[in-house]
Every structure is written in C-alpha cells, then in structure tokens.
Amino acid sequence: MSNALDVDGLEGDGREGKARRLAIESPFLRRMQRRHFFLFNVGPLLGTLAAVGWAFVRPIGALELGLFGVMWLITGLGVSAGYHRFFTHRSFKAPTPVRVALAIMGSMAALGPVISWAAMHRRHHRLADRPGDMHSPNLHGADFGGRVRGLVHAHFTWMLQHEYPNIVHYVPDLLEDRAIVRASRHYQTWVVLGLLVPTAIGALVTRTWEGALAGFLWGGVVRMFVVAQSISALNSILHTLGSRPFQLKDNSRNNPLLGMLIWGEGWHHNHHAFPRSASFALAWYRVDLSYWFIRLLEKLGLATNVIVPTPEQKEARRARAAIKDSNAHLQRNEATHGSQGS
C-alpha cells in the first residue's frame, strides 16, 4: 500500500527526520471512502425515492412530518453546533456529557466520525479554495464546463476519493479527549441508532409495521439525505454564489435563505471571516438556529466561554474589506486610463 504526500509536502521543525505528513492517500482509504459514499449518500438517495413512491400508497401525515422534523433538528444541530462550531472551531466549552451528546447527534447524520470530520474541516479552512482543499468548487477551470465540474465535485464526487488529513496534526486536542475518541470509534453504531429511533417511535405510535417503515423512511433515510445535501451545499453553493462583505482570500459566500434553512450555516462567509465565532449570522435579527441552541445551552449552564467577535473586531474586518475594494477600484481605473492613453 503506497501513501502519497499532499500538495503541501512535509511540515516539521526544520530538522531532518522531524517532518510530518499532512495528508495521505491509499487504496485502502479509497475503498473505505467509496463504501461510505454508497452506503450513506447513495443509499439515502434511493431510500428517499422509495419514500416518495410509497407516499402515493400511504399519504404523508403528521407522523412522517413530525419524525422528519425532530430528527432533522437533532442531527442538524449535532453537525452544525457540535461537529462544526464546537469540535472543529472550539467556539464554546462544554462538559463531558454535552460533548458526547453532540458527537452522537452529529454522528447520526452519517457524515463521518467526528474526529475525521473535524480534521477535514480544519484542513479546509487552512487551504480554502486553494490546491489541497478537498471539496472546493473553484479549482476546475473558470469556463462554464469547469464551473459545472467544480460544483459537482464539491457537492458529490469529492467523497468518492480524497486525501485523508493527518489527525495527529489537525486534531490533537480531540485525540486527547478520551470520551470523544470512544464516541468517534462507535460512529456506525450512532448511525444505526439514528435509523432505529424513528423506526421504533413509528412502530410504537401506530402499532403497525407501516408506522415502523414510515419512521425508518422519513425520520431515517429521507432525513439523512436532506441533511447531507444541506451540508454539501456549504461546499458547493456557498463557495460560488452569495455576498462577500469581508472580501476574504477564499471564495466563501453568505446566503440568507440557506442561513434560515440549514441551522445558520448559510452565513458561511461570516464564518470564514471569524472561524471561532459561535455566531455565524453576526447579528441578532438574522436566523442562526445553532447559535440560538448554543446560547440555550449556556443559559442552562451546559456551555461556557461562548466566543463571538466584538463590534470593534467586526468593524475592523469591514474596514479592511473597504480598503481592499478601494485599492481594487484604483487599480482598475489606472488600467483603464493606461489602456486609453496607449
């Protein structure tokens, strides 16, 4: 089995023999990645198609909508508030029971073990929209065909084969948390739990096999499919379309509609401007379900040290963006005048 160095090569302290691989590729990892893709991406897609077909036999009712909504909220908050804001960016502190609960909630979304997910996302921030960013839509050409290929890659196909980040390098803090290491090792157990819970509730409420199947489909596989597509939209849509108030080096974007629909994650450009902020919306009047959830945990004494940027920090970021805009405008004017003069 051969391992390939990532585009950054080696990193170390400058002394021979102390270098560290930042990411690897291998036939074994590619097999694991493809298996995960077909089980937890293609599988839910097929299950969703089956659920839509079955809806013509058993119309969608309160049970289906209720189980879908509750499981969507639980697993979505597990990914957004847990996997993303807590485990990856350390936007707040939490006691062990809350940390484990967040890891389980996020794992039920079937997006990967928490340690792997956090490592990949930290690597994404380090290399956003540059070579080595495993799911950037902006590295496949600037023409129409390249844009389409980039969107498809960022939304789907990157999961079939990608470099795996060195977890010792990217998430040493998580590896020191024994409770989270144990939770991460049982990832597939939590995925199955996310399917069994709505199935059991559907069976208990209706006392029929049809109710159990409705719970499995709508609270399980359909919910899993919708959550996965929502998170994939961060990679594809929110690095392509939307506003950029802070003018960062990467191509991250804000989208208010997705901010409302996917737990506040649609304020993605804000997040790239202030990665450690628990609030992505950065304003009270913008919808950010995960931030509201974190504040609820804080009120209950289950979260502390919630990080948000101060007004001065936000204004400083805006000022830098304004300076960049002004410089770019001057450069365009100089180029225009220069071409006219020649």
Automatic annotation (TrEMBL):
UniProt GO BP: fatty acid metabolic process
Predominant localisation class: membrane
GO molecular function: oxidoreductase activity, acting on paired donors, with oxidation of a pair of donors resulting in the reduction of molecular oxygen to two molecules of water
Keywords: Fatty acid metabolism, Iron, Lipid metabolism, Membrane, Oxidoreductase, Transmembrane, Transmembrane helix
Gene Ontology cellular component list: membrane
Transmembrane segments: 37-57, 64-86, 98-120, 190-209, 215-238
Domain Fatty acid desaturase span(s) in chain numbering: 70-288
Membrane topology designation: Multi-pass membrane protein
Record localization: Membrane
Family label: Belongs to the fatty acid desaturase type 2 family.
Protein name, entry field: Delta-9 acyl-phospholipid desaturase
